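stage 2 :: seqdesign
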C-alpha cells in the first residue's frame, strides 16, 4: 500500500470522522503521523513476538563523503535514523558489501568498542576484519578494519522511510505490512482522542475529529 493511500484512510477515521480544513491538505502532517505510529506499532509487536516483517526493511547505499573522514582506520558514512526496538536491539539488519554477501560484524555501542580496544587480542582481531558501529545520536555509520572503503549497503527500519533518496512515496510501497494498516489507523485515532480528552476538548482538531452539527 502506498503512503498516500494510508494518509487518505487516516482522514476517514472513524465512521463519520474527518480531518478539519486546516489539516486535510497538510500532507506533511499526515505523513509524519503515519511514520511515528507505524514505527511505534512495529516496536510493540517486536517486544511481543521478537519478529519483524521483512517488508519493513529498506535498502540504502550511503554516499562516501571525503570531508567526513578523520581517521585513516575508520570510514564514516552518514545514515538516516534507524528505529530502536528495545534497549538491546535496533532496526539495522545489514551493513556490509553492496552485493549483500558480507554482513560486517556489529559493534553495539561505543562502550563495547572501548572494552574491545582495551583487550589486546580482541583489538587485534577487530583490526583484521570489517566491523560496523552505528551512532544513532550522530546518525553516522563507522566501518573499521578495512581501508579505502568507498561504498556500503545497509538494510534497516528507518524512522522516516522518506529519508533516503531511493524511496519514492508516489510510486513505492510504504514499508509496512498491509494487514496491519487497520491496527495502525485505530492506534492513530485512539491517540488523537486521548490527547483531546486530556486537555478538555470533545475532539482533537485533526485526525478523527467530527465536525459539529450545525443543523
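stage 2 :: out
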Amino acid at each position: 500500500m502506498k503512503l498516500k493511500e494510508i494518509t487518505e484512510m487516516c482522514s476517514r477515521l472513524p465512521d463519520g470522522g474527518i480531518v478539519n480544513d486546516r489539516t486535510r491538505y497538510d500532507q506533511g502532517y499526515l505523513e509524519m503521523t503515519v511514520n511515528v505510529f507505524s514505527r511505534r506499532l512495529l516496536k510493540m509487536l517486536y517486544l511481543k513476538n521478537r519478529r519483524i516483517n521483512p517488508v519493513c526493511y529498506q535498502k540504502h547505499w550511503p554516499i562516501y563523503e571525503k570531508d567526513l573522514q578523520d581517521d585513516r582506520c575508520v570510514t564514516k558514512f552518514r545514515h538516516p535514523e534507524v528505529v530502536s526496538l528495545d534497549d538491546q536491539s535496533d532496526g539495522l539488519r545489514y551493513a556490509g558489501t553492496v552485493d549483500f554477501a558480507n554482513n560486517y560484524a556489529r559493534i553495539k555501542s561505543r562502550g563495547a568498542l572501548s572494552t574491545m580496544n582495551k583487550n589486546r587480542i580482541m583489538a587485534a582481531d577487530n583490526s583484521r576484519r570489517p566491523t560496523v558501529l552505528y551512532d544513532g545520536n550522530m546518525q553516522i555509520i563507522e566501518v573499521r578494519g578495512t581501508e579505502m572503503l568507498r561504498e556500503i549497503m545497509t538494510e534497516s527500519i528507518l524512522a522516516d522511510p522518506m529519508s533516503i533518496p531511493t524511496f519514492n512515496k508516489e510510486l513505492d510501497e510504504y514499508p509496512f505490512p498491509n494487514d496491519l494498516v487497520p491496527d495502525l489507523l485505530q492506534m492513530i485515532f485512539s491517540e488523537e482522542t486521548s490527547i483531546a480528552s486530556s486537555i478538555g476538548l470533545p475532539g482533537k482538531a485533526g485526525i478523527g475529529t467530527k465536525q459539529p452539527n450545525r443543523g
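stage 3 :: structure notes
- The chain has two domains: 3-53+169-198, 58-156.
- Residues 3 and 174 are 5 Å apart (CA to CA).
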